[in-house]
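The data are quoted verbatim for reference:
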Amino acid sequence: MKENETLFSGLHKRPLADRLRPVRLQDVVGQDHLLAADAPLGHMLAAGRLASIIFWGPPGCGKTTIARLLSQAFGLSFESVSAVAAGVSDLRKIFDLAQNRRAQGEGTLLFVDEIHRFNRAQQDVLLPFVEEGLVTLVGATTENPSFELNGALLSRCQVLVLKRLDEDALSLLLSRAEETEGKKLLLTDEARAALFAMADGDGRYLLGMAEALFSVNLSKPLDEEALAKFLQKRRPLYDKAQEGHYNLISALHKSLRGSDCDAALYWFARMLGGGEDPRYIARRLVRFAVEDVGLADPQALPLTLSAWETYERLGSPEGELALAEAVIFLATAPKSNATYMAYGGAVASAARYGSLMPPKHILNAPTRLMKDEGCGKGYMYDHDTEEGFSGQNYFPDNMKREQYYKPVERGFEREVKKRLAYWDQLRAKKQDS
């Protein structure tokens, strides 16, 4: 037994991810756009001055590691808190320590993990201490800072975006793990690629899976199917209440609008795979049917509603196929937002003109007084005309005629446009006569 080693030493072996944590900034993988000599952090290192920073990026991309290495590179004492557990009292203790260090000519880097979890009041506590430079703040968040952080705090920090680790970065991490363990993982090329896909850009998660594989004695390489059985597949990163939710529904909507059927199906599958409620997707598809297809294909709305009803009857996973059919139909349908624009124009006019009365000739006159006031006088019954069209004015008397609905030359609206043009000609002809 080695010196300082006990019977229980092996039970407390540091996790692989911890043992492989970089000790130099140049060892960090996948973030060259921040760390290179001509990148933001590279410029700060060259200038010898570290600004307060908000790191925004997915889990396992190196936010905490970079923060710790920056404190070493700039000779700052590292203080770390998690916004999930820390409160104002914890922050004030750190500020007191930082004040004492400053008196001795030392600086402090305050790392706040998941800084988006601090409420507005807690974020405000940071402001004066960041402003006067008592601490250099490095916050880490997986959520969009522009949504989650105070504008005042953001104005005092530089937001740097970290990327999810690509396959090259993950491959380098795995190679380091194999070198540390002194052996190669027994995986086929396909299984190795599948392992990277399962990591989903998260280096920490990749090393956790690798550690599980190192812990077993394999007699032959695992193929992709065997790997999937051995390792539980990670659920895709997707928070139904946060930015990922809005990013993916935006991607689905815009893919549909762009008539890219395959991309729309991909984002639809991503949302379902992330645990999104299919009913929410169904609502958004119905909205798309009326907003972006409209009367270019009048079948879009009833078909989408039928898909939603089918899902309600069948449930998951069978009913999801009906929603997929609606996705395909909407993506391949002719597009028109003429209804959407027409409604918006009408709403704007209603607000602008106030409470104008309808012209008297289209008002009913159920009482003698209303008849005496001219209600209904001069009204022409359209069915009694030769063309089935009277051409009368239906706008208020003190309001000019406006055109809100402007159908496009696509799908069924092409026919609607012909009808409207014909009625416009008749209207002009009757008004001139």
In short: Residues 5-11 have pLDDT under 50 and may be disordered. The two ends are 112 Å apart (CA to CA).
